[in-house]
Amino acid sequence: MIADKKCKTCRRAGEKLFLRGDRCFTPKCAFERKSYAPGKRDYERKHRSTVTEFGMQLREKQKIRNIYRVPEKQFARYVKESVSRSSGSPAELLYAELELRLDSAAYRAGFAASRAEARQIVSHGHILVNGRRVTVPSYRLREGDVLSVREGSAEKPIFARMKESGAGAAASSEGAVGVPSWILADAKEKTGTIVGIPRRETDQGGLSFKSVIEFYSR
Q1: Is there a shared CATH topology between the 2-96+208-216 domain and the 101-194 domain?
Q2: Contact in structure between 191 and 131 (CB atoms under 8 Å)
Q3: Sheet holding 183-186, edge to edge
Q4: How many CB atoms lie within 10 A of CB 165?
Q5: Which SS3 state, helix, strand or coil, does residue 72 take?
Q6: CB of 207 within 8 A of CB of 67?
Q7: What pLDDT tens digit does each residue of the chain (218 aa) get?
Q8: Rounded to an integer, what distance in angstroms lies between the CA atom of residue 183 and that of residue 102?
Q9: Coil, helix or strand for 32?
Q10: In the 3-class helix/strand/coil scheme, how is 120-142 assigned residue by residue?
């Protein structure tokens, strides 16, 4: 049931959002079989109506919010805070804010195959920040923070993939592969250190954070 819900989210977005991690690359992926939105009839699929600018911005907002698995109220707060800052591009600030969430950074460091899985291992207390257990997925990391797997959890099967294939081997929801430059990951020690600020120009991906800012600025 949960898998079906995630697959429908991708179909509504019109593209793969990789919400199920590695399983999105298998032939069983629902998007491979039905790339159109759920409930669309044959006529509607063949005669797609023109999407307005507002519709495109809304779609992009929903796509990014679903990728990072952030509730609407919290997502709107991130946007508001990014716009209110006196320096920096609001789109870049929003991107950094989302990437520096603990669940997102844990995923980017290779601790999990998807952000959903990363959210779960954080909530279950498997991840430490500077040696202290943090169970809040939205916890905001800062430069210099060190993520690590709790000693009692290190041998669990879920973390075996990190050592076998190297940290960050899973593809990200934005199509990028590997650990981004702002994280220094050590697969052997199962650690990840925040060594910089996430920047769109250095990370791959085709998401439009500018459209999200414009959507909330209406």
Answers
A1: no
A2: no
A3: 132-133, 127-129, 146-149, 191-194, 183-186
A4: 12
A5: helix
A6: yes
A7: 445 666 666 666 566 565 655 555 566 666 555 655 665 555 455 555 577 889 899 999 999 999 999 999 999 999 999 999 988 899 999 999 999 999 999 999 999 988 999 999 999 999 999 999 999 999 999 999 999 999 989 888 888 766 555 454 443 444 445 789 999 999 888 999 999 999 886 555 578 899 999 999 98
A8: 12
A9: helix
A10: HHHHCCCEEECCEECCCCCCECC
Fold held by 101-194:
3.10.290
Q: Are 215 and 59 in contact (CB under 8 A)?
A: no
Burial degree of 52 (CB within 10 A; 0-12, 13-18, 19+): exposed
CA dist., res. 88 & res. 86, Å (int) = 7
100: Cα within 13 Å, side-chain hemisphere: 20
Q: Two tokens at 131?
A: 């040696």
Taking the alpha carbons at both ends of the chain, their separation in whole angstroms is 36
Would you state the CATH architecture of domain 2-96+208-216? Answer: Orthogonal Bundle (1.10)
Q: What are the φ and ψ backbone dihedral angles of 71, each rounded to 5 degrees?
A: -60, 150
pTM: 0.74
Structure tokens at 114: 């998807």
User: What are the residue boundaries of the structural domains of the chain, listed by start?
Assistant: 2-96+208-216, 101-194
Find, among 187, 198, 82, 92, the residue nearest to 142 by Cα: 198
